[in-house]
Amino acid sequence: MKNIGMLLSGRGSNFEAIAKNVAERRIPDARIAIVISNKHETAGIETARRLGLESLVIPSKGMQREEHDRAVAAELKKRNVDLVCLAGYMRLLSPWFVQQFPRRILNIHPSLLPAFPGLEAQQQAFAYGVKVSGCSVHFVDEELDHGPIIVQRAVNVQDGDDEHTLAARILDQEHIAYTEAINVVLEGNFQIVGRRLVRK
Ligand code: GAR
User: Fold this and answer.
1) Nearest atom of ligand 1 to the alpha carbon of 9
2) Where residue 60 falls among pLDDT bands split at 50, 70, 90?
3) Domain 1-101 sits in which CATH superfamily?
4) For the residues of 95-154, what is the DSSP string, one character each?
């Protein structure tokens, strides 16, 4: 049984989709061991409570980056977390944190990386006028939105779209992509060649 630790900062829809797929065994032999938010009163933490999952708020406001990361890592390690999933965790991780969980931290980003890293990626893509966008699940390394890509799913931009309708269709694909990526990583039948994840 693999232990997943979820880190989030807000709505928590990716977390909820993963929790559903864990419960329905579409992510087999795994459990969500802990849900941690760096912000108070998030919908994500409410969802964790509703689902009966253990959750914690470790507020990051006013804390040094690494000091906060040490508090979070301690809680993850206490629960023997095998995989750390960032799901709308809107805080940069320190190199120290990344080194605690080598190749065991995943992030989802709402664009086809390396296009549009950073905040409000869907809006950036829409404003740029791309015809295809999507989402990426990748390993976290010391750089923002940068580590090797595990899964990407593309979404066509339609003439009638605005940034909200596009973001909503990307989100639907995020909920599929994250589970696919977790299964790839937990199954472990891959190697990383340069930046490329290659299935064995
Ligand atoms: C998602 O769209 C996720 O891809 C994005 O935040 C949203 C969180 O939604 N993450 C980033 O932009 C990270 N750079 P959720 O809380 O409903 O899962």
Assistant:
1) 16
2) very high
3) Formyl transferase, N-terminal domain (3.40.50.170)
4) HHHHHHSTT-EEEEESS-TTSS-SS-HHHHHHHHT-SEEEEEEEE--SSTT-SPEEEEEE
